[in-house]
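Appendix B, record 7
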Amino acid sequence: MTPRDLPRWSQINQIEASPHAPGTAYIAAVRYKLGDLRPYAYVTHDFGRNWKRIVNGFPDDGFVRVVREDPMRKGLLYAGTETGAWVSFNDGGAWQKLQRNLPVVPVTDIAVKDDDLVISTQGRAFWVMDDITPLRTIAAGTPSGAVYLFTPRTAVRMAGGGGPRSDAGRNPSSGVLVRYQLAKARPDSVKVSLEFLGANGTVLRRYDRKGEVATDTTRKDEPQTGPKVTAKAGVNSFVWDLRAADASRFEGLINWGGGLEGPLVVPGRYTVRLKIGTETYAKDFMVSKDPRLTTTDAEFAEQYALLLKIRDKLTQTHDATLDIRDVREQLDAVVARAKRAGKLGALEDSARTFKKRLTAIEETLYQTKSKSGQDPLNFPIRLNNKLAILGSTVSSADAKPTAASYTVYDDLVARIDAQLGKLRGEMGQGMERFNRMVADQQVPAVVPKRR
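Structure tokens (predicted):
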């Protein structure tokens, strides 16, 4: 039985049986071929004996092609009209636009796949709204107060996603999508940050309005790059790439074929913590492995442990390079001051010899001749780059590291540690000898400020 107020010769464009309640169904009817552009959408709760028109909020000339109910949340409806997509949180009692960045275009059908909303359009291909869990949360009536942190959906630990293409749509970003709702924007004077914690409560990554904030206070490159945390009114979004912190870098670093990014975390439970001023909000979420893999939790953990050791040794190596460059700059400054004061004496030769010993260590750790991405074709890579390549090799598959990986790691680390040992000697006894000479000349001493 059709609705009594539905005009004759209307075309029933779609029928949706509710996945939640027997006897409940939704229909969308169109009459544009008869010159009638008005919306016709109805719901029945008694197997079609009675119908209620549900068009509050639709424009008078935006006819409805399809109505679908969310399979996870009763009364959460999606509609496709001649001019775009719409949503209702109260079983069609009121509709509001769900357009986002969708152009004004006819929406011909809608489907919900897991946590994503897929729509077909007339002339603009298929579109997907990634992760509609916030809509389901809103439909449940739970968001309240000045701040609400939505529970992130389970993130799948796998590569891919992200980057735009000229011949296809953008895939969802890899990682976990965090959304939080603010009743009003926060001024720049208010501190806003997101932290991602492991199961043991350790902070893995921290971001604020300027980018990433180092969780390791001993790092010497002081990173402040990467995605920024926003604090605008409405729903804010942030994507964590599921990686631990990167290895440290220094200005002009050229790395051939090896990555410095931190390893992907292992599958398990994690926590996101939103801090706004003195207030803190937290939600747990899960990271799952690619369902196509047979890799065990123990194998993931072993790979992660080795990659962390590689990352930490790279950071130690790059921090040593920063120390060397800092001391060399100070040596040049000391010589310049002594020269201006007429107290140069043997200080210049001593500084030159000291710098030469430091540079020899640096050039063993890093290829200083590389100034562009193509230079490693002409100048052989050094220990840091070889270790970075090992890291990329170990992380190239979701599998337990091979025995050869450990052999190469042990060899490279032994050679790096030998150079770091020499550097500690120079920073200790070598610098002490030079500073005694500086004191004799009554010139300010060299201080390794990054140590």
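Remarks on this record: The chain has a mean pLDDT of 91. The longest helix spans residues 297-340.
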